From TrEMBL:
Transmembrane segment boundaries: 7-25
Keyword terms, alphabetized: Membrane, Transmembrane, Transmembrane helix
Domain Transposase Tn5 dimerisation stretches: 13-101
Signal peptide: none
Pfam families: Dimer_Tnp_Tn5
InterPro entries: RNaseH-like_sf, Transposase_Tn5, Transposase_Tn5-like_C
UniProt entry tagged with the keyword Transmembrane: yes
Name of the molecule in the record: Transposase Tn5 dimerisation domain-containing protein
Species this chain originates from: Candidatus Methylocalor cossyra
Amino acid sequence: MERLERAWVIYLVIAWRMLYLMTLGRDCPHLPCEVAFTAEEGRAAWRMTTRLPPPQAPPTLGEMMRLVAGFGDFLGRKGDGHPGPKALWEGLLKLMASVEALQTVHEVHGFTSTCG
């Protein structure tokens, strides 16, 4: 029973973050993405989707949510509305793996960040 309670606590924290991100992305899309994502996550997401260096000003939260959800197979067509929890969750998993990989390459090989 104790292990099940621990698992529920972890799932609740994950669910809270997903709801927090979805609510912020829908209600406050013009905020800078740094209110919910680290600068490294923002640079990595921008670099992975556009293949260009990140802009000087961070993307907005609405743009970042669509970038991350795109990693989770959100198509972002005109009538698709806002990203849902499944696309956002899958996108966050891929984004976190990419950020870890970039950090590892930087630490092991001493390269400057390829994110910008």
